[in-house]
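A reminder from the course coordinator: this example appears on the midterm review sheet, so study it carefully.

Given structure:
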């Protein structure tokens, strides 16, 4: 069973944005692509996010009801489904099966990210909210698949800056606090028996500690303290509940899968490592009690298998589905029935159900059947060199009909990702395909600090916002020009969250390079940004100061890399979009940028949605945003009709 939000401590992630791209049509394509309606790219999927009941008798999914994603459940072998929820103001953020009779789901209000936990029976009865508290965020820490009537949740109810773990009884609604967070705990971990055994703490602001106890009656002891740059990240206990399996970059550049003696804070052995990429996750079979696979991302997702049965399962699925990438999104308790999801760079794919006992593989649904993958553009992995010698990996999407050899003087949208400590990957991205369909080449790059490439590459981004991180984006843009792919007069830059910040700094640092910019929920002022972060990020501020800059000690540098103070350097027109309830990048970030632009007489368009937060989730707001962006880019890149 997959967890919605397993809380295992990791380094600070700032502004987890929707990773967005943008631009319009120009240049003489060898074969003009069929113009596809905007709504086809951005409307809600027909059915998605399938899960399966522990007994394997039912599957569930999210599907639109009055333009909002709600939970439906369907008995296997039956044609009719039951809609369990009727949310009309906001999509359901995530859901799972805690047992055979209930669905649990999370939903916030207007994008404020203060998620509440709801329960509904699979016949649609007894809809209740377990955490109906104002200004409180609910986390799912552990779904306790072996304890059907309990889950572990985290609440910042007692103190908005920290989360306390609670054991929630799903029959009575009773919540019991398992430990009071002293203020420095960022995550909790439970063993296979549902006992709280591990905690992840911050020490002195920038060091991190793993705390351990043998039983819930014992005192916590510090078993390992390191700099936050050096990380041992436990994933799960070994099946005897003695050691842990996790990923670690201790003493190495790339994170590897290790077995760790948690009681004594010592690495026992390396189970798998890749010389080029960090290992991102480790999976296991609860039923067979074996480690199954490690995953990492090169230009696409890769797996290393630890056991033959898992390897043979994927080989079996690939026999029928090998034209697509695939993943297993859910399975029943005895691991005989699997939900399989396919995808590619040109398709959102489909869901299948595979019965291991009968070896039957049946398609359930196409996610977006109105998308014709033959009309979509291919996404090509590329690399280039930064000015100081780093190899930067990225993706180039050319309009349909072009190749790397034939693409010349195209209008381009440069699309830096959010995070910034995240990364772009290969797969279907509706907005990238939309822009390619409109005739734009879209360029995504994993600039320094992007995750998955090792510790050195990550640390090279520290205090480099608007500096070397921005140079990596500029170097990629110039690489496209040198290759002859980009029309140097028709390049726009667009991104969300950190990508929005990079858009603003791109217009500041390279006023002649970009013809237009689109900033989507981006940071404009490093000082006010750090003052308005969510309260549960405040314990991580010292880390943020080391990674981004200290407002006092680095004030001159932070002012230099705050776009709002550099508006006089901007020449290109700008479009800004913002959610009024954004808890990560406060609306004031966009307000002050718009005010500064107008004061300088520079063209700026501004879209604010009052019922959105960090990115637009409601379908009608997505339509409005992309429609406005399409017109803005067409205006300022001056496309030529063909």
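Designed residues:
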């Amino acid at each position: 069973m997959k967890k919605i939000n397993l809380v295992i401590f990791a380094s600070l992630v700032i502004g987890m944005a929707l990773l967005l791209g943008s631009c319009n049509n120009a240049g003489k394509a060898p074969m003009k692509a069929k113009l596809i309606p905007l709504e086809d790219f951005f409307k809600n999927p027909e059915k998605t996010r399938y899960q399966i009941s522990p007994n394997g008798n039912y599957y569930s999914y999210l599907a639109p009801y009055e333009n909002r994603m709600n939970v439906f459940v369907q008995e296997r072998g039956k044609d009719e489904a039951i809609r369990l929820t009727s949310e009309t103001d906001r999509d359901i953020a995530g859901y799972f099966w805690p047992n055979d009779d209930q669905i649990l789901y999370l939903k916030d209000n207007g994008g404020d990210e203060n998620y509440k936990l709801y329960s509904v029976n699979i016949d649609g009865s007894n809809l209740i909210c377990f955490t109906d508290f104002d200004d409180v965020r609910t986390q799912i820490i552990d779904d306790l698949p072996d304890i059907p009537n309990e889950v572990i949740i985290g609440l910042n109810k007692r103190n908005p800056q920290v989360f306390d773990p609670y054991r929630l009884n799903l029959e009575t609604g009773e919540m019991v606090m398992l430990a009071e967070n002293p203020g420095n705990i960022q995550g909790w971990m439970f063993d296979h028996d549902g006992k709280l055994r591990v905690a992840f703490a911050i020490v002195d602001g920038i060091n991190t500690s793993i705390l351990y106890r043998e039983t819930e009656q014992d005192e916590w002891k510090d078993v390992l303290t390191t700099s936050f740059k050096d990380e041992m990240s436990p994933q799960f206990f070994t099946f005897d509940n003695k050691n842990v399996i996790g990923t670690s970059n201790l003493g190495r550049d790339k994170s590897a899968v290790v077995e760790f003696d948690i009681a004594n804070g010592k690495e026992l052995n390396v189970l798998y490592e890749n010389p080029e990429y960090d290992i991102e996750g480790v999976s296991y079979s609860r039923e067979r009690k074996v480690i199954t696979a490690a995953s990492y991302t090169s230009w696409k997702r890769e797996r290393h298998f630890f056991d033959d049965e898992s390897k043979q399962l994927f080989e079996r699925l690939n026999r029928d589905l090998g034209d697509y990438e695939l993943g297993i999104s859910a399975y029943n308790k005895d691991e005989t029935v699997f939900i399989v999801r396919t995808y590619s760079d040109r398709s959102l794919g489909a869901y299948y159900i595979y019965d291991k006992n009968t070896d039957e593989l049946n398609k359930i649904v196409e996610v977006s059947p109105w998308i014709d993958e033959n009309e979509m553009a291919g996404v090509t992995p590329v690399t280039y060199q930064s000015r100081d010698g780093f190899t930067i990996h990225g993706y180039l999407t050319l309009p349909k009909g072009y190749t790397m050899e034939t693409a010349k003087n195209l209008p381009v949208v440069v699309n830096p990702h959010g995070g910034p400590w995240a990364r772009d990957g290969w797969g279907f991205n509706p907005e990238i395909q939309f822009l390619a369909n409109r005739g734009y080449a879209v360029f995504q790059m994993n600039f320094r600090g992007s995750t998955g490439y090792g510790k050195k590459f990550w640390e090279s981004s520290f205090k480099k916002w608007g500096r070397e991180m921005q140079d990596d984006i500029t170097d990629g843009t110039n690489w496209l020009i040198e290759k002859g792919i980009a029309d140097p007069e028709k390049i726009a830059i667009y991104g969300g969250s950190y990508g929005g910040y990079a858009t603003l700094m791109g217009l500041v640092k390279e006023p002649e390079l970009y013809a237009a910019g689109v900033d989507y929920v981006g940071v404009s002022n490093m000082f006010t940004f750090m003052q308005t972060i969510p309260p549960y990020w405040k314990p991580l501020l010292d880390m943020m100061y080391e990674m981004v800059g200290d407002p006092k000690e680095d004030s001159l540098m932070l002012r230099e890399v705050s776009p709002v103070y550099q508006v006089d350097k901007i020449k290109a027109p700008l479009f800004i979009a913002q959610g009024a309830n954004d808890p990560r990048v406060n609306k004031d970030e966009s307000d002050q940028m718009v005010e500064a632009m107008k004061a300088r007489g520079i063209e700026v368009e501004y879209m604010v949605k009052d019922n959105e937060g960090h990115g637009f989730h409601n379908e009608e707001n997505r339509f409005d945003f992309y429609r406005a962006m399409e017109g803005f880019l067409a205006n300022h890149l001056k496309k030529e009709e063909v």
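Confidence is low (pLDDT under 50) at residues 1-29. The radius of gyration is 24 Å.
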